[in-house]
Amino acid sequence: MVRIIDGRKIAEEIQNELRRRVEGLKEKGVIPRLATILVGEDPAALSYLRRIQKSFEAVGIAVEALKLSENIAQEDLEKRIAEINQDPKIHGILLQMPLPKHIDVTEVSKAIDPSKDIDCINPLNMGLFLLGSPRFIPCTPSAVCEIMRRSGYELEGKEVVVVGAAGRVGRLITLLLIRNGATVTACDIFTRDLARHTREAEILVSAVGKPRLITADMVKEGVVVIDVGVSRVEDPERPGKFKLVGDVDFDAVKEKADAITPVPGGVGPVTTAMLISNMVKATEMLEGTCT
């Protein structure tokens, strides 16, 4: 019988561990505090940040939410970030994407203090990750590896196929899997005869964002499937409503898989947990309590 990997349960385990570390910080008089920055009034972004705030507060981390005008000038945004960088009470900064088109994302990312950059978007932090000496590990790749580890699946020596490796998240997942000893084939939706590659996978990771890209005929019996992609599609059972689905045709593929992550409830909750983990690490480093 297929094993449905419960990302919410794994996230809860991680958050319980982090809660104890936060309690240890508070015993030393340190209150971890996150600053979130939202530029504009995008409803989806607002909803996401509310969920983030709830998750962080659940482990004892304070959150300050900063909302800025969609028309804010690049220079003014960078000044606000600089002010937060200098605030000793703030240990982590989360800049919500996407930003308005007139904002240079790379330059704004550079403005975030690398020691508070828990989402690992500052080019310095990304460079350290690529060089193998990370200050923080990007959250989604970290979530993929943490799901595998906590579910009892070894990566070392395994044949892994990553679909979506041309995208930012897919590239980072590929690199982290290699660092964990996997033999990785990097594919994308434009790979010729994609199914020929995916059928060789002992572990299949898809991070494209294309609904039901991976079908049952594209996987072999006993595969472990990690579905990173998320798409919003019309719900045929509820006219006029929408639902979230992954890259994988879940109902069909689970009949052949040894284990599979659902969407929602798979990689997403663990990604949030790894963001909290980066936040706790940032606080410990800034306060000199990191072991």
Keywords:
291 residues; Rossmann fold; 2 domains; six-stranded parallel beta sheet; 10 helices; 11 strands; globular
Q: What can you see in these coordinates?
A:
The protein is an alpha/beta fold and 291 residues long. The protein folds into two domains: 29-120, Leucine Dehydrogenase, chain A, domain 1 (Rossmann fold, 3-Layer(aba) Sandwich), CATH 3.40.50.10860; 139-268, Rossmann fold. The protein is 41% helix and 16% strand. The protein is built from ten helices and eleven strands. The chain has helices spanning 7-27, 43-58, 74-86, 105-111, 123-131, 139-150, 168-179, 194-198, 250-253, 267-286, and strands at residues 3-4, 33-39, 62-68, 92-95, 159-163, 183-187, 203-206, 224-227, 231-234, 242-245, 259-260. Strands 1-11-8-7-5-6 form a six-stranded parallel sheet. A three-stranded parallel sheet has the order 3-2-4, with helices on both faces. Helix 2 links the parallel strand 2 (33-39) and strand 3. Helix 1 (7-27) runs parallel beside helix 10. It is globular, with a radius of gyration of 20 Å.
